[in-house]
Amino acid sequence: MNRPPCHQTPAWAALQAQFEATGKSFDLRQAFAADPGRFTAFSQEAPHVFADLSKNLIDAPTQALLLDLARQRGVEPYRDAMFAGEKINRSEDRAVMHFLLRNSAPAQTGRAPEAPENIASGLLRVHETLAAMLAYAEQVRADPGITDIVNIGIGGSDLGPQMAVLALDAFRIPGKRFHFVSNVDGQELAGVLAQLQPQNTLFLIASKTFTTTETMTNALSARQWFEAQGGQDIARHFAALTTNVAAAQAFGIRTTFGFWDWVGGRYSLWSAIGLPLAISIGAQGFRELLAGSHAMDDHFRTAPLAQNLPVRLGLLDVWYRNFHRFTSRSIAPYSSALRRWPAYLQQLEMESNGKRVDAQGRTLPFATAPVLWGEPGTNGQHAYFQMLHQGTDVVPVEFVAVKKSSHGLPGHHDKLLANVLAQGQSLMLGQSDAGGHRHFPGNRPSTFLLLEALDPASLGALIALQEHRVFVSGAIWGINSFDQWGVELGKVLAKDIEPRLRSGDVSGLDASTAGLLQRLR
Q: Which pTM was predicted?
């Protein structure tokens, strides 16, 4: 974007003045007392998601200035460039088109007759691959001989499908178990293998290049175990989610499903990487997931900025990170099915926006992504909520709640919902009529995201909402949210260190690494 950096825009200066004048002393309790309509003004319906932003440290003038910042930073044309298939991932010279993976337009026509060639051709390939993948998923679902599905991947090839399979467990096909192996620590794979019989197991090897160290180490060990246990027919019991068909065939795999260089790993759940989920919830359920995310895509693409939920959330993140200087955000899903939601969001946001240079490679003079962390409620209440209520740092909390439960156990869901409401209320109100240990300062911000039910469509919308929110804050900061060079250096150094663990050669190493290497031998 050929525009001034965000900290040199008029809106940034106005926001800084606003923060000094009213922002840093803003009191939520006073704001609600002064404005009975605050809840209505700062809550919003979006596809499958209701959001209450009213318990955040924000008022109408601040929100207006943040929207000015979005305009001055060109969020709308940048968003439109992504949806037009332009190569906005400049450091890798790639388009960013994961939204195509959930576009339900007929493959024969593409999104529109005037669609750019890369969009139209990409959509055709997407629908061909999706149809083949879902047909295979239905084949596995109908096979009583396959009782265990093991997904071997890491990063985006693990976190997305694992989170979603757990989240939609209420829709899982009976009689099949799902396992996820990502860590190169053999203890994880060994623990899974101990539960399996080779004749009843399907291994899914998820690696775009089929060279990822952790994934291929685990895949080779799984194949060795399979053969040692008397397993027959690797082609039946192994499938690959990869673009490297030749390498998969050399491994012994004949069933492969690919995806494209415009699909980043952390945005790949919607692609063939979602095969474990498609097996779990079926082709129709997977299409409902895609439809929910596509509805959120349309909302992000067409809604005015002031009524655009991903935009409002992304701008709130900038307000907290750069003006209030909050360093983290706590994720508190009040649904045990969403227990991997915080981990999924960690990769989505911290890998996307954990950058210290802008898209042109210039060092940034301001902070970017906060640290994301959390656990499901009510577990978190008995762990770290002490710090949220009475600690020295202010940490914005993002609650996720589900109106309708997926179980029939009486009394549980009302208690769960009472707790999530009470936590947001107590963070805001505090307790000022008690001193010392019993004093709660209050005025601690939170966001409340509510789903009618945790079903495939609502989960798809919730995930897409977070993807686009990260896009918005990245666009404001002027960074490339779609590369991840920070994961590479450690991989390179590990390849040098591994043979040294066998040889004992410490030449050229720093004293600490050399000393630790010797002790580890």
A: 0.96
